[in-house]
Amino acid sequence: MPQTIEEYQNIQYSIHNHKRWLYNIRNDRMIVSEHPLENYLGDIDQPTSPLHDFYISPYKRGKMTNFHLIRIILDSLKIKSFYKVSLFLNKGYLTLIMLILSIAALPRITSVLPNSLSRFSMDQFSALEVFLIYMTTTLVILPLHEYAHFSVYYKYFKPPKVTFGFSLRYFSMPVFFIKVPFYRLLEGKEKNELILAGVKFQVAIWFFLTLIATVYPSTFVVGLLIVNLGLIITNLLPFLKLDGYWYLSHLLKVDDYMAYFKGMLSRQNKFRLDIFVLGVINNILILLSIISFAYSIISVFI
After folding, report:
1. Contact criterion met (CB below 8 Å) for 82 and 154
2. Alpha-carbon distance 249 to 256, whole Å?
3. CB 221 within 8 A of CB 212
4. Residues 6+ apart with CB under 8 A from 88
5. Which residues contact 271 (CB under 8 A, 6 or more apart)?
6. What single string gives the DSSP state of each residue in 81-149?
7. Contact predicate 240/285, CB 8 Å
8. Which of 40, 106, 195, 292 minimizes the number of CB atoms within 10 Å of its CB?
9. In this predicted model, what pLDDT tens digit does every residue of 13-32 receive, in sequence order?
10. Distance between CA 270 and CA 265 in Å, rounded?
11. Structural element, H or E, at residue 70
């Protein structure tokens, strides 16, 4: 199991497999080296320090394809109180039980809607219900999804601080995010546990919404349940750097299959047909996502 993360002047660091992993939480930079970089932390604020540029360089809001709109650095102690509950709800056997029960109840639960599940549309709901579904999804479900990732990350690393935020991915996908810079130190089941934590927590949300809909069958609750189900399916897609993307990367035994794909194009990595096909599909989906977003914007003014 990886060591607990230490922190000095907002520099988080860990020693793992004879490598030093240093992460500057203020400017979102990471250094990995076999040299004992921790020896330079004491005078890191001095211009003569080899880590001075790493320490003082400004924060950049990501790439154009993943632009950070909002970033918040929080003390982990202030938000860890709920993490044990989150870990409990992410237990595999409990997730399976909740998933089976929720699927079994879905036909009866959705019977309150004017149209069948196969013809589901937000047009079935009033303007108030659509607004409440959107706000609940944005302000409750998606943050809880990210908190589930944090819970597993905190379980293994106990970082003094953690970064949450809101970004725009591929010019069209507004997403919450949590920074897990030491993610690559995890191996096997531990890495899968972190990757799938958000989706598994949404299965728990699906189950609790099913219980509510059983007692109080309303179109709002059922609508929220279906939107949450749609987000679960979307997050499992192995593209667009969603949870399924990172899970598939782990199965392929690479840190990031699109980074490997780009390395193949520049002949830095060995050619792999599976990653080549996935890379092409992923780029097509990114392009379609951008075109769809641009079309939606243009249609507003036509």
Report:
1. no
2. 6
3. yes
4. 94
5. 264
6. GGHHHHHHHT-HHHHHHHHHHHHHHHHHHGGGSSS-GGG--GGGS-HHHHHHHHHHIIIIIHHHHHHHH
7. yes
8. 292
9. 998 888 899 999 999 999 99
10. 10
11. strand 66-75
Give the pLDDT of the chain (302 residues) as one tens digit per residue: 566 788 988 999 998 888 899 999 999 999 999 998 888 888 898 999 999 999 999 998 877 778 888 999 989 988 888 889 999 999 999 999 999 999 999 999 988 887 777 677 777 888 899 999 999 998 899 999 999 999 999 999 999 999 999 888 877 778 888 999 999 899 889 999 999 999 999 999 999 999 999 998 888 999 999 999 999 999 999 998 999 999 999 999 999 999 999 999 999 999 999 999 999 999 999 888 888 877 777 776 76
Among the listed residues 11, 6, 21, 78, the one whose alpha carbon sits nearest the alpha carbon of residue 41: 11
| 62-63 and 161-169 strand pairing | unpaired
| DSSP states along 140-200 | IIHHHHHHHHHHHHHHHH--SEEEEEEEEETTTEEEEEE--TTGGG--HHHHHHHHHHHHH
Can you tell me which residue has the tokens 């890495």? 191
Half-sphere exposure of residue 140: CA atoms within 13 angstroms, side-chain side: 13
SS3 279: helix
Query: What would the two tokens of residue 203 be?
Result: 């299965």
Is there a contact between 248 and 238 (Cβ–Cβ < 8 Å)? Answer: yes
Helix 219-235 and helix 127-136, axial crossing angle in degrees, nearest 10: 40
Q: What is the spatial distance between Cα 237 and Cα 189, in angstroms, rounded to a whole number?
A: 20
In the structure encoding, which two tokens stand for residue 57, read together? 């360089």
Query: Helix crossing, 188-215 with 142-157: angle to 10°?
Result: 140
